[in-house]
Design goal:
This protein is α+β, with helices and mostly antiparallel strands. It has helices spanning 5-16, 20-27, 31-38, 48-55, 59-64, 80-83, 96-100, 121-128, 207-210, and strands at residues 88-93, 105-106, 110-111, 116-120, 136-141, 155-159, 169-175, 178-187, 190-194, 203-205, 213-223. The chain contains nine helices and eleven strands. It is globular and about 55 Å long.
């Protein structure tokens, strides 16, 4: 009988003796992200390989239900840390849908173009100020609402440990079950929600509405992607 990703994940997690929170902690995502996959609200995840490694199951089986054996023997299992070069600092894509949680509408502002980028430890320290790799994620921007600061197809690097407003800056946040990436600026008792592209209007949240903003991450760095074709 063909099973779904949700069923296979729950089966593997239960057999491994992991709670949703323990599995989330092991791979660097929230419990809500795991719950969203198990409930069937997320049909895939950029974290499937890490989930499979944490639960000692075949990534192919977890993703598709195919494969001769569900369980990887100890001799074949490869710990995630051994995949990286000794001094590598690996930044992975933020699973937007899983991060946002069940019922959240992800607007057409994000696309997947890469799965991870590796940096030397020295370069990572320069870029991210010594933050652990597990706290930094990549998002590729599609929309133009922040044009002038970053353009469509640019990569932005976010700190997923920031889940509250900690001063003016650019944030990934949920409001009224929609996911946004905007500049937030406190203006007296109102929170201004700013699109750096001037063709989009700034809007304001009164104090009574600010509690409805659920911050997912804060933008630290952006990287412009410009392709040149040579033949």
């Amino acid at each position: 009988m063909k099973t779904t990703l949700a069923q296979r994940l729950k089966q593997a997690r239960t057999q491994a003796g992991f709670s949703q929170k323990k599995l989330g902690d092991a791979i660097g995502v929230s419990q809500a992200a795991i719950q969203k996959i198990e409930s069937g609200n997320a049909q895939t995840s950029t974290k499937l390989i890490e989930i499979a490694q944490a639960l000692s199951v075949s990534p192919e089986w977890l993703a598709s239900g195919l494969g001769e054996s569900e369980i990887i023997s100890d001799s074949k299992a490869v710990p995630a840390k051994q995949i990286l070069k000794p001094d590598a600092y690996k930044v992975e894509t933020l699973d937007i849908e899983a991060s946002a949680g069940p019922g959240v509408m992800v607007l057409d502002d994000f696309i997947d173009t890469i799965t991870a980028i590796e940096y030397s430890a020295e370069e990572a320290k320069r870029l991210f100020g010594g933050r652990p790799a597990s706290t930094i994620k990549i998002i590729t921007v599609k929309g133009d609402s922040m044009a002038g600061t970053f353009e469509p197809r640019d990569q932005i690097f976010v700190d997923v440990t920031v889940n509250h407003f900690d001063g003016d800056g650019i944030y990934v946040f949920v409001l009224d079950n929609q996911l946004y990436i905007k500049r937030l600026q406190m203006q007296y008792k109102r929170l201004a929600v700013i699109s750096d592209n001037p063709k989009y209007e700034t809007w304001h949240l009164e104090k009574s509405s600010i509690d409805g903003v659920f911050i997912q991450a804060k933008v630290l760095v952006s990287q412009s992607i410009k392709y040149k074709y040579h033949g």
